[in-house]
Amino acid sequence: MRVIVNGEDRSVQAGATVADVVRSLELGGDRGSSGRGVAVALDGEVVPHGRWGRTVVRAGARIEVLGAIGGGR
């Protein structure tokens, strides 16, 4: 099925969860598997990390995956 991830059209398997989508992005390090430093919004609503594995994504969903970036002054 088709979803929009960070503004890009992507294909995911029917029944995919938020965790599946994050893993598919291959974020590097342990960010993709542990979720450290990553936030996800599904159709404009933040999904708490503890619910990623049980939150099923529907066709046409808009998913934003944001990674924290260190730095600053």
The computed structural class is alpha+beta
Element-level helix/strand string:
EEHHEEE
Spatial order of strands in the largest sheet: 2-1-5-3-4
The radius of gyration is 12 Å
CATH architecture: Roll
CATH level-1 class: Alpha Beta
Cα distance, first to last residue?
43 Å
Largest sheet: 5 strands, mixed
Low-confidence stretches: none
Helical amount among residues, as a percent range?
Answer: 10-25%
Approximate strand percentage:
25-35%
Give the overall pLDDT as a whole number. 87
The number of distinct β-strands equals 5
Please provide a brief summary of the model.
The chain has 73 residues and is an alpha+beta fold.
Explain the overall architecture.
With 73 residues, this protein is α+β, with helices and mostly antiparallel strands. It has one domain: Beta-grasp domain (Ubiquitin-like (UB roll), Roll), CATH 3.10.20. The protein has helices spanning 18-24, 31-34; strands at 2-5, 8-11, 38-42, 45-46, 62-67. A 5-stranded mixed beta sheet has the order 2-1-5-3-4, with no helix packed on it.
